[in-house]
Known about the structure:
This protein is an alpha+beta fold. It is built from 15 helices and 9 strands. The two termini are about 70 Å apart.
Amino acid sequence: MKIKEVSEKTNLTERAIRLYIENGLIAPSVNESYSGRRNIDFSSEDVESLKSISVLRKAEFSISEIKLLQSQPEKSKEVLRDFIDRTNKRIQADTETVTCLMPLLSEEELSLEQIIDCLDSPVMTEKALPSEDSEFSPLQKFIRKLFLSVGIVGLLFNLACCVPIFWVEIRDIRDYLFPQYDLTGIFYLGIVLSAVLLSTLIIFLNRKNIVTSKKRQRIRGAFSVLMICVCVWCSFMSYALAFLAGTSFAESFVISQTADTENYLSFDDIGARKTLPEFLPEKLPDVKGIKYEYFYKQYGENPEPPRTEVFLELPLDEEAFSEAVEKYRAFRPSDSAGEPQEEKKGEWTVVYYRQEDEKAPTCYTPVFAFNEKENRVRFICEYNAGISFRGSAGREAMTRDYKW
């Protein structure tokens, strides 16, 4: 028999039944489903026990007294005497209950059934159960509604903060060729998700009809307060990140990083202009929209940078692409004596600005490449301690170290 059916038969609330189970007044069988959910099954004897408990509770016997009557019948007189003494101290509204129970003290042996039979009268039937059996106290109601309101407001607030934060993250994951997160990025995104999770847990813990014993109520309240404190801090961090994500300087935590030495150094606008001041475009778009922005890592005892760097790769519209190709096909470094040479590398056309074996005044020499199929351009430089890689050995080395 399920708890709803038992509730209808006994006129007890589900909360009251769960409270009696929690305190050991009845012990129905419990079956656990394959999903881990606990299903309570009541027998007809359990129903009768609940009816008896209901009678005693309506008479305002405490749960501990009922438990003692069930477990130690020999102490029935002692329990009854304590109950009568306590009842006599109440206002005269409880006089009828005392009058009903007084004759039982003259019995030589007293049983639980006798007490229940005496109390089970029309007058007692009309009485309601103690409020603690069937409803929250005013303080409990206030605290539960307060926690529930904080959880709902926190959840809505943090979900709103998640929109700009994860929009920026998704944008950069889509744009980067090797999207990765370091520990810092994982930590901050974890804070954002924790704020949503904590708000949800606060709502879950303070939803209606889950209160059982007072001990569990206190644990739940303390746990809710702790979660609210942590959630407030997480929400503040989420708001700060959402504010930054909503500005024109929005940057995600995703980085485009690869541990492969055949990939490239991090794009550095200032450093690149110092290295090849006349080569790069005057105006560059937002760096975060550029796919090639890799961090070079050291390898082994004698690390070397890759022999070819992609400073920048840009997707352009047709007009800007045509202008860039025309400009850089005609471009010549100021210290170069020869004409530019073009070479096909897969879908890319590569423009070399130095003659074979021509010495470069610095360790970097510019290379331009364009992809007519995708309307993309690359600003590249070759590296080697003051000499260009335009010789036959240099061409092989560049082909090996740089994959188009």
